């Protein structure tokens, strides 16, 4: 493909999709780390939040061509696209501040499962529609609580990504919450499916509500738990199901420590297959 | 390049059509935040992306750079500005009119957000959106997500036509 035909700026070398291609999403942003900010801690937070988003986006993308209606398919794909956009910015930021100089593709495609720091709930298989919307409600309630607080972070890049992300994730939460209510308030079958989904997500909730991902950057302990308690009670009352708030988590190593379910390596194998088969490919 | 640089650069960058919504320009969408010209004919343009995941972002940047180069600027730098974030409030009156003329209901006002948590409001009636075809107010939301990241699907009960609505964010 001729660069000129695409009208790609010379400086960007015509790179466009994987391996190829996406231009740096932080292109032209001042990348200096402010004094007093611990670059390693900043990178850890960015990677964890990006991993939640990338893995969550991949699960949502699995609905494409399989959703019950085309509107639902578009909605799920668009939620995934929002998350993918957040992941790209956060990986890029992490590579700038962790001293490695890695780009977003290196984070997304060349790490093995134990190097990922996503919550395990995000990596569980797609499940049915009830599981999908319930998981989205759980993860977006928690993510929103973290992003709301990181919007005031000392690092201006993370703060800007978080501030923009708040509007996006608040919308994901509303979309998921409204569907949880419709399923809970729908037919006998939809209620049965929703109740089954509650049972399926329950073992993984502790890691979500007691997540300390932003603690080193000033996200108060208990902020995520309080936000989840408020949101889930509200949705549960409308939907006629109880979304249990788990007892304080026992801190057994979980996704944030690189301990994952058997499902993550399979997801990553598919996600990175093109990148591995054609390293550095450009088209 | 003469002293008319900044105005010309602003006009050229702002006049580039949005690839997803080609009926409006980047200027009308409020994506152009600033231009700086130097004496040697170079220009730096500050662009605010709409959504972090907007797949058109690289294309928009390329279009802006190509348009500025065609207008005689060199070198051209396009700088991304994430803060303050773009919202639909940045869309100009002309942009809103052109969206409506093209059958896309423009966004309504967005309530200002304080520093606190975003409340979860269930079952709220969506603010009425006028049908861009017949002007009817008897409309309903079909789906919160439309064909692109920034639109929702609506339907008019009066003229029975479906239409897109640019979501207020």
Automatic annotation (TrEMBL), chain A:
Any one GO cellular component localisation term in the record: cytosol
One of the protein's GO biological processes: phenylacetate catabolic process
Organism field: Streptomyces triticirhizae
Record's signal peptide: none
Gene label: paaI
Protein name: Phenylacetate-CoA oxygenase subunit PaaI
Lineage of producing organism: Bacteria, Bacillati, Actinomycetota, Actinomycetes, Kitasatosporales
Pfam families hit by this protein: PaaA_PaaC
InterPro entries: Aromatic_CoA_ox/epox, Ferritin-like, Ferritin-like_SF, PaaA_PaaC, PaaC
């Amino acid at each position: 493909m001729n660069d000129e035909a695409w009208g790609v700026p010379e400086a960007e070398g015509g790179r466009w999709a994987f391996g190829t291609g996406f231009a740096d999403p932080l292109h032209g942003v001042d990348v200096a780390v402010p004094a007093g900010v611990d670059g390693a801690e900043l990178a850890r937070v960015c990677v964890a939040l990006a991993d939640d988003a990338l893995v969550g986006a991949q699960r949502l993308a699995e609905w494409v061509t399989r959703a019950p209606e085309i509107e639902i398919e578009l909605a799920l794909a668009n939620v995934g696209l929002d998350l993918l956009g957040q992941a790209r910015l956060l990986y890029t930021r992490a590579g700038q501040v962790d001293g490695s100089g890695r780009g977003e593709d290196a984070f997304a495609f060349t790490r093995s499962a134990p190097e990922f720091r996503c919550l395990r709930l995000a990596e569980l298989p797609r499940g049915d529609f009830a599981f999908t919307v319930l998981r989205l409600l759980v993860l977006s309630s928690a993510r929103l609580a973290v992003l709301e607080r990181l919007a005031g972070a000392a690092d201006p890049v993370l703060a800007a990504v978080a501030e923009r992300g708040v509007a996006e994730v608040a919308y994901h939460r509303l979309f998921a919450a409204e569907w949880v209510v419709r399923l809970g308030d729908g037919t006998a079958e939809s209620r049965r499916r929703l109740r089954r989904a509650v049972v399926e997500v329950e073992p993984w909730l502790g890691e979500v509500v007691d997540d300390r991902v932003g603690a080193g950057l000033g996200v108060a302990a208990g902020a995520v738990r309080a936000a989840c308690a408020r949101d889930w009670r509200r949705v549960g009352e409308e939907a006629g199901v109880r979304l249990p708030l788990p007892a304080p988590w026992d801190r057994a190593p979980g996704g944030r420590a690189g301990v994952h379910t058997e499902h993550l390596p399979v997801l990553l194998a598919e996600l990175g297959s093109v990148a591995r088969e054609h390293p550095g490919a450009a088209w | 390049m003469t002293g008319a640089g900044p105005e010309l650069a602003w006009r050229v960058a702002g006049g580039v059509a949005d690839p997803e919504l080609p009926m409006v320009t980047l200027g009308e969408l409020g994506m152009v935040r600033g231009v700086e010209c130097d004496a040697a004919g170079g220009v730096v343009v500050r662009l605010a992306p709409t959504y972090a995941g907007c797949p058109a972002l690289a294309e928009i940047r390329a279009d802006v750079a190509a348009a500025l180069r065609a207008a005689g600027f060199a070198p051209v730098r396009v700088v991304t500005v994430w803060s303050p974030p773009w919202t639909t409030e940045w869309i100009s009156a002309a942009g809103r009119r052109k969206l409506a003329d093209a059958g896309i209901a423009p966004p309504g006002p967005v309530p200002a957000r304080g520093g606190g948590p975003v409340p979860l409001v269930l079952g709220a009636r969506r603010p009425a959106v006028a049908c861009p075809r017949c002007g009817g107010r008897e409309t309903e939301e079909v789906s919160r997500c439309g064909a692109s990241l920034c639109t929702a699907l609506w339907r008019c009960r009066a003229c029975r036509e479906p239409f897109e609505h640019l979501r207020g964010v």
